Structures are given as structure tokens and as C-alpha cells.
Amino acid sequence: MKLRDLAEDLPGKWTEIEEVAEEASAVFAELDGAQRELAAMKKLR
Fold first, then answer.
1. How far is CA 23 from CA 8, 14, 34, 38, 42, in A?
2. What is the pTM (predicted TM-score) of this model?
């Protein structure tokens, strides 16, 4: 949601791009880790 909000407010909030990108990257890294963990758990069955 933050990415969409940022995009709607551009170019005014261009200074927030790096912060929002870092947050999005962290969320996707967490999601990737969870997906890998789930895949590993499925292999153990």
C-alpha cells in the first residue's frame, strides 16, 4: 500500500522513495524466506 500511496503523491514525495523501497525489499525478503521454509516443510512429508 505504501508503494501505491507514494506513487500517487509523486513527484512531491520523491524523498521517500528510498525508505519505501527498503521497506518493500524487506517484506519481499521475508516472504521469500517463508516460501522457502514452506517448500522445505512440504518435502519432509
1. 18, 15, 17, 23, 29
2. 0.68
The whole-angstrom separation of Cα 10 and Cα 23 is 18
State how many domains the chain has: 1
Model pLDDT for residues 18-34, shown as the tens digit of each residue = 998 999 999 999 999 99
Q: What are phi and psi of 12, to 5 degrees?
A: -60, -35
The SS3 of residue 4 is helix
17 vs 37, residue with greater confidence: 37
Dist CA 37 CA 35 (whole Å): 5
The parent domain of residue 38 ranges over 2-43
Please compute Rg for the chain using Cα positions: 16
